[in-house]
Each structure stands twice: as structure tokens, then as C-alpha cells.
UniProtKB/TrEMBL annotation, chain A:
It comes from Desulfosporosinus hippei DSM 8344. It comes from the Bacteria. CDD domains: Radical_SAM. This is Radical SAM core domain-containing protein. Residues 95-310 form the Radical SAM core domain. PANTHER family: 7,8-DIHYDRO-6-HYDROXYMETHYLPTERIN DIMETHYLTRANSFERASE. Keywords: Iron, Iron-sulfur, Metal-binding, S-adenosyl-L-methionine. Pfam families: Radical_SAM, Zn_ribbon_HMPTM.
Automatic annotation (TrEMBL), chain B:
InterPro entries: DUF7479 (IPR055902), DVU_1557-like (IPR054656). Residues 12-70 form the DUF7479 domain. This is DUF7479 domain-containing protein. The lineage of its organism: Bacteria, Bacillati, Bacillota, Clostridia, Eubacteriales.
Amino acid sequence: METRDECLISTTESFTESLCPECLQRIPAQRVVQEDAVYMVKHCPEHGDYQTLLWRGSPQWESWLRPTIPTPPIECFTQVERGCPFDCGLCREHYKTTCTALLEITQRCNLNCRVCFANAGTELDEPSLAVIEGWYKKVLAASGPVNIQLSGGEPTLRDDLPEIVELGRGLGFNFIQLNTNGLRLAEDPVLVSRLKKAGLSSVFLQFDGTEDSIYQTIRGRKLLGLKAKAIENCAQQEMGVVLVPTLIPGINTHNIGGILKFALEKHPAVRGVHFQPVSYFGRILKEPLDSDRITLPEVIQAIEEQTDGLIKVGNLKPHNGRCSFSGNFIRQRDGSLKPIVNNSCCNGPERADELARKTRTFVARQWSGAETLKIQPLSTQPSNSWDNLIQQLKIYAFSISGMAFQDVWNLDIERLKNCCIHVVSPEGKLIPFCAYNLTDKFGHSIYRRER
Amino acid sequence: MNNNQKQTSKTPWKCGKCGGELQRGAVKASYLGNDFVVEELKCLSCGLVLITEDLALGKMFEVEQSLEDK
């Protein structure tokens, strides 16, 4: 039987499909190379032409491949009727099984941010524990015990958050992460302790920079002190923390190196940094300009330039195609970072379910807390014992990664089909992250409930 | 080499290949392009290294998993 490698084919062709930013109709699109940049060019018969920056600079677009052989979900909750992205649930035509399932357990928030795809500040009934249990079970049916991220809104505003974590662990999910702004974790160390006891593995901490002016601009408040306190409280509980900066040109892209240096100062409590270039959702009065975007190769270049070469471009590799990159390192005694050579990727097509499995395993291992109390003094064992090596690989490992979300202007349906981050909708369907958060330029959503 | 004996520093291991004496020493281990130096029993004469089944399925496997990327 011949196996057709659809992802491999799609990534090397310039034609794809996208949506019209005004009417959300599916329209043909083309990836066009102009000098060192790649653009998405598309035409809506009703609303005209659009051109959006996808990629700028080196590593080159052509080199950034991680071809996969599609594997459909274990159980599909929707039928293919209208075609991608209108049948999400997941459908049989989705290429990849789940790496991480997101559960939005509240829509309330204690911040009012300039960039946010959660519906902060609205008053809606929150899902009960019984509803959340149903969501967990849907994830198990569709994808098995994958990694879970509890998100919102701001999930720490729910007083029963430890019970929600405990419920998930009891159902067999081994890695549960909290996506948070960290305010409550900073103010309430008892909550951090309760979350640890409930089985929370990791904190995905919104962290936009090491300068308060950055928080003032993006989040409307000075927050650096609170972020540091949240990290300290997590460190006391041996809870792994991942710093998650939303990168916005002109606001914090100069601070990429500063963020990495800060993360290394707080290592091993901070397990890594996960960069998210800004994308545009909600009501956008003016189409984002090229200068409003920072593309993955620009993030990668900035990492090398702003860390004075501590991290090299060549140590960062494609992960989920053109959506992401990652690099893994062992911090040395002299402060340098030894890259862990990554030969397990990029040597030909991989099965999508195998890649998703590797991602889940890696994330669960790397982003969980390092048990620093178990470090044995070097004097009690040879420095080159297996035990010492295992400890070093676990405790001193540090990861740098990034993921570029898609918005309605740069949406590439081939990329969307390859998505392994899935949001559980209120009805218990699994929707690829970028499809769930996608809106037209007026803020109308395909999947997210209108407020 | 006799794999039934428990590995301790006092055990007088003999090399199954050349009969030489085994002694703890630095051994280079490689996996997925990453090199490490670990201490293991190795033959003073021919360099053959003793890797017990417990080690292969235990700590060595744990190291391998740590190096497998996403």
C-alpha cells in the first residue's frame, strides 16, 4: 500500500488555503518568497487582496522543515462536512493527535491586558467540577492521558483549583500545568503548597520581560516584583516554572536576552523559556503591519545576538514545522550552556503520533519541578557516576522554545491541520488552538462563544 | 565475565574476553551524539567494559530517555 505523506508534500509547495479576514470564507493562498522574506498572499473575491509577513531572515524558510506522516485522532467528535477549519472537534482529516489539551476553567481575570485571546473580565458561569470531569474524559477518549494545561481567564481565581488538579491526576493525567499571570501565586504561598499537594506539575508563567515599563505597557501594571515572588513561592515547593513572554515588536523584543539571563539566574526552579510572538485576535481596526510582527527566525537571531552567543542559532531546531522551535541545554558550573545534541529530529518524516508522544514526554520531564533537595553533595559520590549524570541531566537541563500562533491574516490551513495544541470547547470538543482563538477583523469567532 | 556476581568495588572481576583484571575507570558513553564520561568497571588489559543488565535497563535507560528530544 502506498503511503501518501501529505505534510511533506504541503510544506514544500507554495499553494495552500487561508481565510478572508473580513468574511472568514476559505480562500486560496500562496506562500511567496521576496528576497529574505516569505509572505502569505491571498485574494477574496468579495473583499480583495491581502499580503502578510510569515518569515523574515535566517534560518531560511526552506530549511525549517519537520515533515510528519499524518495520524488521525483516536476518536473523532465531528464529521467532515464543510472542510478545515469549520469541522473542528477533531475531525478525521486532522493530521496530528494531541500533545497538550487546554481546559479553560474560568473566563474571569485579575488583569486587563492589551493582548489577550482569553475573554477576560466577562461574567459567565464557570464549569462545575462535574463538567470539567466530563472534559477530562473527552480528552482521554480522543487522545489518551496527554498533557493538560489549565487555562482561562486566570485559573487561580477559582478557589477549587486544587480540586480540579486532583481530579485530573485521579483520572490518569500525569502532567498538569497551570497557565497563569502568577499574581495569586505571588500573594498566596499556601495556594502554591495546596496545588503542589494536589499534583500540579508545572507553572506556565506569563512573563513579558525584566523591566516594569514592559508590564505597564502590555498589562497596565508594574508586575516584575510579583513575578519574581511567584517564582520564589514555586521554587519553595519545587514546582517547575516556565517563563512565557509574549513578544511584541517595539515593546519587549529588545529584552529577549534579558529574559533568558533572568531565567538562568532563577534556574533550576525556572525550567525554561517559551517565547510567543504576538498574534492578532479580536477586533482589529487596522490590519497589522509587517513591523507589528516578529517571526520565528527573528526571535532565533535575537536569542543569539542578545545573549552574546551564549545560545547559538544552530542549537535551536524546528519542532512542529513552521509553528515552533526548541533547543535543550545543560547548564554548566561556569554558567555556559552545553547544547543537548538533537539528532532525533529532522532526519526524514516522522509519524505524527510518535512526534506528539515525544513532545508530551519531553515537556512533562523538562517543565516539571527539579527536586533540588535530592541533589547529593558531590563529595559523597564520584563526579562521573551514573547517578550524578542523571541528576545533572534532570536538574541542570534548561529549555528554550517558541511557538508562533496564527491569526486570520497569516492563517495557513496546512499548518492548522498539523496543530497538536487543542482547546476543549464547552461542549467537550477538541479544537486546534489557533482555530479556537481565531477571529475575523471585527472580532467574530468561529468557535469561541460570542460575548 | 560473570554477570551473576554483584558489582562492588571489592569483587575481583575477571574479563571474560582476555582474563584480565577489572578496575573502576573512566569510560566514554555516547547517545544521540552526546558524549559523557562515566565511571565503570573495565578490563585493564583489553578495555572491555562491564555493563550489567540492571545498569542497562536502569540508569543507562534513564540517561537515554533524558537525551531524547521532543
